[in-house]
Write a structure and sequence with these properties.
With 276 residues, the chain is mostly helical. It has helices at residues 5-8, 13-17, 25-28, 32-58, 67-95, 97-101, 104-129, 136-158, 166-180, 183-207, 213-242, 250-271. The chain contains 12 helices and no strands. It is globular, with a radius of gyration of 20 Å.
Length: 276
């Protein structure tokens, strides 16, 4: 089963085919690279502010000032990053619509973008504005955002030739937990990662030849699941162990973790469009 936009919206094929010959696609196409740079810069701005704000909810990073103060300083940049990504994405998409229409990675990116917007405006901004507190409506929206994010991950995992990009998300999750973990938890966690990495290298470079894809592919997929399980388990332990600090409680910390990863996943899916 493929999950490209053409599979969900087959009736749009003729309209999509002509998008690069009408406004704004026709005007954007000669300047595609410049608009692409704008798209990447918007992602950098959004990614940077999202990391700083959500790490603050996790209790690490810029902890010298209240989360609400950090929100006041970065809220405008966060919104500008979201607007920039959507606006430049629509423009470069109109100039490259036919290719995106057949891309499973693009479909995953769009669902991830929706999840990112939901989590940013239901968790990141309101929770930092209220120093870690979230009301019932925001919590419900956060759960919806997390569910949409799960769908995006599932779609990315099923995207042919692009799904190795999920390793970017796994590594990002590993680094976030390493940064947020403390004391003995960090030592045990780092040791577990080191063991998993060593075993994976032995399996994929010693036990199996570099071109033995029949064994390498399922082995790497299995390790992806094991890494993910280890990262999530330690993240849960850390969130529960720290409890309700002056930053936020376990629920908000979990949502902040997802709010960082969703933009990593969206960026990774976008970069892997070329391989789909």
């Amino acid at each position: 089963m493929t999950m490209a936009p053409q599979d969900f919206l087959p009736g749009l094929a003729e309209w999509v085919h002509g998008l690069d010959s009408v406004f704004p696609g026709k005007q954007v196409k000669p300047w595609f690279a410049e608009w692409e740079v704008g798209h990447i810069l918007s992602l950098i701005v959004l990614g940077g502010t999202s990391i700083l704000l959500n790490l603050r909810l996790l209790g690490v990073g810029l902890t010298d000032e209240p989360a609400s103060e950090l929100n006041r300083n970065l809220r405008g940049w966060t919104i500008a990053g979201v607007v920039g990504i959507v606006a430049t994405g629509l423009l470069i998409g109109s100039a490259n619509a036919e290719r995106l229409y057949t891309s499973e990675a693009f479909a995953a990116k769009m669902v991830g973008l929706l999840a990112g917007i939901i989590l940013t405006f239901s968790v990141t901004l309101p929770a930092t504005r209220r120093d870690g507190e979230l009301g019932p409506i925001a919590r419900a929206a956060a759960v919806v955002g997390l569910a949409v994010f799960a769908v995006a991950i599932w779609m990315f995992a099923a995207a042919k030739l692009a799904n190795p990009g999920l390793w970017h998300v796994i590594f990002a999750g590993a680094l976030i937990v390493l940064f947020a973990a403390r004391g003995l938890t960090r030592i045990v966690y780092l040791g577990g990662l080191a063991v998993l990495l060593a075993v994976q290298q032995v399996m994929t470079n010693v036990v199996y030849r570099w071109d033995d894809y029949a064994h390498l592919d399922p082995t790497n997929k299995a390790f992806a699941w094991v890494f993910t399980a280890w990262i999530i388990a330690v993240a849960i332990v850390q969130a529960v162990a720290t409890g309700r600090g002056r930053e936020s409680g376990p629920f908000v910390k979990a949502m902040a973790f997802a709010a960082i990863l969703v933009w990593v996943m969206t960026a990774a899916a976008g970069r892997w469009l070329a391989f789909a």
